[in-house]
Amino acid sequence: MQEVILVKDGELALKGLNRSTFEDILIKNLRWKLSELGKFRFEKAQSTIAVYPEDEEIDLDEAADIVGKVFGIVGYSRAAICEKEMQTILRTANEYLGVQLDSVNTFKVESKRSDKKFPYTSPEISRETGGYLLRRHPHLKVDVHHPDLVVNVEVRDKYVFIHGNQEKGAGGMPVGTNGKGMLLISGGIDSPVAGWMMAKRGIELAAVHFASPPYTSKRAEMKVHQLLRKVAVYSGRIRLYTVRFTEIQETIRDNCPEDLFTLVMRRMMMRIASMIAEKENCQALITGESVGQVASQTIFALACTDKAAKYPVFRPCIGMDKTEIIEISRKIDAFDISIEPYQDCCTVFTPKHPRTRPTPELLDETEAAVNWQELLETAANTADVRYISLREED
Ligand code: ATP
Ligand code: MG
After folding, report:
1. By residue range, what is the domain housing residue 13?
2. Nearest bound ligand to the CA of residue 227
3. From its phi and psi, is residue 16 left (phi > 0), alpha (psi between -120 and 50) or beta?
4. The pTM is what?
5. pLDDT, tens digit, for every residue of 110-136?
6. Which of 108, 135, 170 is the last residue of a domain?
7. Cβ < 6 Å from ligand 1: which residues?
């Protein structure tokens, strides 16, 4: 029996972006993600995309698993394909869904007929199919309001699709339909979650990581690659800039009051990230900050950080509790990597008593002691650049 995956589009509220563009980007993303399993063909019709495996060996369970992680999909289901002939439809429905029907108590049949030349109306198809299945599974009852299983029969142009209940999709919008953002990624719990949340809204990701060797290790950088790989499962591949931050951090240590170390550092991060964002054609920066979580994330501190950024700073975790962030971190399989204990540059030279009510003016004054421009430009221009994809060898 030939099988396909039927994909239901997500929200299409964005003005100016028509359905066709939205669907084309979604298909491109699906094609990329599914390519690791083999070749697929895609067909758009009636706000559904039918995904046809083209190789015999393709495991449709794995394919469905991948489809469940692509943004822009409300729901999806595996479906059997059959010829447009009533007896064939009845037999296929029973063969394909018989095991499921045996394990439930109630069902109903829902039919759609987009080919009006098909000689049965939708209610007639439902009635025929329902009767046929009831005769073969006499324990079943029809429940039109809350059935355990909905048997769907969709009569299309070329074939009929038959499927059971729909699985919930990843929601959101297809990555690439809402511009591009530069994710500031540390090795912590929050920033990978922040990247995932913005990718969910259709934003393509690039990333920047600040490393301070020898204070931070190669292992810490590998950890960031591993984390981004988890995000890339959802966002598609990510171009990562690893910036050597050592000299800037040492300059901060040597020239700024200790209670402002972290904040000056965060502002320098924003400036470098903005320079790289410009090169990468990004429209926003993304961080994992959450208000009040640490001294550098008080509302006053965040206002100072913002002033150093050239682009809007998206902080999707801003109103979330740590437990809520961790819930997502686990869901995307990043948590166990995030809690590995490697030193991040944020924990180098941390002040004992960071200032929690700084002002932008105070920071401007403090920073005036050094001519930063050249240091920042050098850091931005000498970053290591690489793609992070699903697997190490990609
Ligand atoms: P996270 O769990 O994401 O590390 P955090 O709660 O530990 O966040 P901070 O260490 O203060 O908070 O960092 C706040 C945000 O600044 C991070 O979410 C990340 O976006 C950015 N950031 C921190 N350190 C780095 C780094 N080494 N490279 C790039 N971005 C960083
Ligand atoms: Mg951190």
Report:
1. 3-170
2. 1
3. left
4. 0.93
5. 999 998 999 999 999 999 999 999 999
6. 170
7. 184-186, 188-191, 208-210, 269, 287-289, 293-294, 296, 344-346
